[in-house]
Amino acid sequence: MPLRLRIPTTFAPIVALLVAACADEPTVAPPTTAANPLFARYVAVGNSITAGFQSAGINDSTQRRAYPALLARQMGTDYVYPALAGRGCPPPLADFTTQARVGANLGATASTCDLRDPSSLARPLNNVAVPGATSFDPNSANGPASNTLTFLVLGGKSQVDRAIDARPTFVTVGIVGNDILSAVSSGVLVTPAGVPTFTPPVQYAQNYAAIVNRLRDAGAQGGVLQSTVDLLGTPVVVSSVITQNPQLIQVLSVILGVRLTVHPSCTGSRALFSVELLNRIRSGEHPPIVACAKNSVPGTPVGDAFVLDEEEQATVNTAITQYNTYIRLKADSLGWAYYDINPTLRELRANGNIAQVPDLTSRLTPFGPYMSLDPVHPGNLGHQRIANDLIAIINQKYGTTLARVP
Amino acid sequence: MRGTRRALVVVGALLVGGRASAQGYGLNEMSSCSIARGFATTATPCDDGSYIHWNPAAGTQLRGKVLGVGGTGISIDGAFTQDRTRQRFDAQVPVQVPPHLFASYRYSPRVALGLGVYVPYGLTSEWGEDFPGRFIARRATLQAITAQPTVSIDLIPGQFAIGAGVVINRTAVGLEQAIDLSSTTARAAQGATPAVTFGQLGVPAGTEFARANIDGNAFGYGFNVGARWTPDAAWSVGARYLSRVDVAIDGGDARFRQVSTGLVLPRNNPLGAPGGTTIDQLVAPQFAGTGALTAQSASATIALPDQLSVGVAYTGVANTTLSADVIRFGWQAFETLPLDFANAATPDRELIEDYAASWSVRGGAERRYSNGWIVRGGLSWTQSPAPDATVTPLLPDMDRRNYSVGLGIPLSGLGTRWRLDASYLFVDTDGRRGRVVERMARTETADQLNGGVYTLRAHIASLTLRAAW
Question: Residue B6: its chain A contacts at CB < 8 A?
Answer without folding.
Answer: none
